[in-house]
Request: fold
Amino acid sequence: MPQNITKGAKALVAEANARVVTIPTGEALGLVGSEDHVIVDLRDVRELKRTGKIPGAFSCPRGMLEFWIDPQSPYHKEVFNQDKTYVFYCASAWRSALATLAAQEMGLAPVAHIEGGFTAWEKAGGPVETVD
Reply:
C-alpha cells in the first residue's frame, strides 16, 4: 500500500519560516568575521568541495546538527556551547529553515538562517572560501 503523505516538504519549510528569524542576504554579508556570530554551513562535504563556503563558516552536516548541539550527546561539539548568535545556511534555505527551527526547539539561542541560502549569497557577490 502506498504512503499517504499529508504534509510535504514545502509546507514544513513554510511552517519553519513562520517561526524562525530569517536574515536578509545583504545583512548576512556583514556577519563574516563577526565575533558575536557563528555561521554554520549545513551542506554536505560534496557541496562544500564543489562550491566553497562562506569564509569562516563552521561545517555541520544537517544530519548531525541535533547531535552536535546536544551537550548530553557523545557527538556534542563545543562550537555550539558559546554565547553567540548562530546563523545557519544551506544551498537554498530549505534545510536551514528546518535546522533553525530544530535548534530553536532544542534551546539554542539566538538562532537564525540566511534568506536564499548559499545560492543567494553568491548572487549577492558574497565572499566564498574554497574547500579542499
Q: What stands out?
A: The domain at 13-123 is CATH 3.40.250.10 (Oxidized Rhodanese; domain 1). The two ends are 45 Å apart (CA to CA). The mean pLDDT is 97.
